[in-house]
Amino acid sequence: MKFVAVTACPTGIAHTYMAAEALTIAAREMGHEIKVETQGSVGAENVIEASDLEGVTAVIVAADTKVDKSRFAGLPIVEVPVKDAIKDPKGLIAKAAEAKAEAAPKAKAEEAKPAEKESRTGVYKHLMTGVSFMIPFVVAGGILIALGFAIGGIYVYKTPGTIGEIIFSTGKAAFALMVPVLGGYIAYSIADRPGLVPGFVGGALASAIGAGFLGALLAGFIAGYTVLLIKKLIKLPKSLEGLMPILIIPVLATLVIGLVMLYLGSPITAINKAMSDGLMSLNNGSRVILGLVIGLMMSFDMGGPVNKAAYVFGTATIATAANGASPIMAAVMAAGMVPPLGLALATVIAKNKFNTAEAEAGKAAWALGVSFITEGAIPFAAADPIRVIPSIMAGSAVTGMLSMFFNCTLKVPHGGIFVLAIPGVVGNLGMYIVSIVAGTLVSAALLSVLKKKVQA
Questions:
Q1: Quick one: which of 30, 151, 408, 446 could link to 391 by a disulfide (CB 3.0–4.6 Å)?
Q2: For residue 215, what are the CA distances in angstroms to 66, 221, 279?
Q3: 82 near 27, Cβ under 8 Å?
Q4: Interval 439-450: pLDDT, tens
């Protein structure tokens, strides 16, 4: 049989390519042909062309973000979260193979299913679409700001025209787009292109009034669903329908979102400020507990919604922390590095607990761990969740607690070990490294004890 597939995860870094590889290997082992298009952080690769659809049995869409499926019209489509393609690629291909036989006799009955699925998973998918577009702005802006500080010192912004100040200002401009982009692409996920204008404007207003991340979330959802409501309520004659996307929708939806943000902005801003002030004024005991919670969240689903909630929260605190030095972001990144690092170390010190494929995956996990790609732990967790997930959660919790206890801080939202060498990026660098190593050792030790020996 012949299949085509599209994989896409919120960050476009790990899940996207792991799912593509899993589907490719599974199809080859099952004797099928498959072409997988990856929609990652660098854009679409291995793009499915019209010629690739000739003789296709079914289409597999393994994605947690919005994917345009219009080009697959008339073909059976199996749509699942990206993690399903990683955990059970052969089962997913088998499901797609059955979809063709069911498509013709059950076409009408199947029509209601996409809407039903959307009602269950839509909010998460819309949020993850916004996050996936936001993260490159956060990463690029944060790292450029750090480079600016490294080159020009902590008062780089007072030296206009210097290389350091130019890099700093460029990073600051990119970072400032984080909130509007989040609102804009949440609205885009809900209402397609007509949602972009009100979504971006709502996000920009949220940023301007200090409503920040929460305001952008609210603005994006309100803008998107406002557009859908306008399209449903306003019906123009055929001769005037062209005015809807270029005049009626953007003007009315943007007006609505402006009024909403005007009246709701103050309460959201107050919530943001109270949350930020409360976190920054925590005593050492409470900070340790917060670090523990962050660690558990980062390892619980390794790139899923819980992990992303902790990550997005951490990035938001960079904007509110003094000089951009966030202890929460430091705990987030450190805890997120531990799962793949702990597993990589475990494959070395407990070789009899891992099969050949896992040992090879352990080599890649070193690189993924130091790069702050938590998803590197997924293949191990999928194979043995009962033992792996508690072990990596324990290690990440230890790292989160230690990072917060030692008051380590971080000025960038990503980069892993590669940003640690930039002067001024990490506060209390020595103890930050100790925190990461300690969590890695805890996870590796637990895995070495809990996992069963591989049968010869």
A1: 446
A2: 22, 10, 19
A3: no
A4: 999 999 999 999
Q: What is the pLDDT of residues 270-305, one digit of tens each?
A: 766 665 565 555 555 578 888 998 899 889 877 666
- What average pLDDT score do residues 322-327 get? 79
What is the DSSP track for 139-150?
Answer: HHHHHHHHHHHH
**What is the Cα–Cα distance from 456 to 451, expressed in whole angstroms?**
15
Distance CA 187, CA 302 (A): 26
**Closest among 217, 218, 253 to 233, alpha carbons compared:** 253
Residue 262 is predicted with a pLDDT of 83
* Domain ranges, ordered by start, for the chain: 2-110, 117-278, 284-450
What are the residues facing 60 on neighbouring strands?
5, 78
Tell me how crowded residue 355 is: count the other CB atoms within 10 A of its CB: 12
* Cβ 408 vs Cβ 383: under 8 Å: no
Structure tokens at 126: 């819309």
Give the homologous superfamily in CATH for domain 2-110: Response regulator (3.40.50.2300)
DSSP 8-state class, residue 56:
-
- Give the pairing type, strands 33-40 and 43-45: antiparallel
pLDDT band at 113 (very low <50, low <70, confident <90, very high): very low
Contacts of 279 (CB under 8 A, 6+ apart): 290, 317, 328
Place of tokens 């076409």: 107
> Is the pTM higher than 0.85?
no
What is the greatest pairwise CA distance in the chain?
74
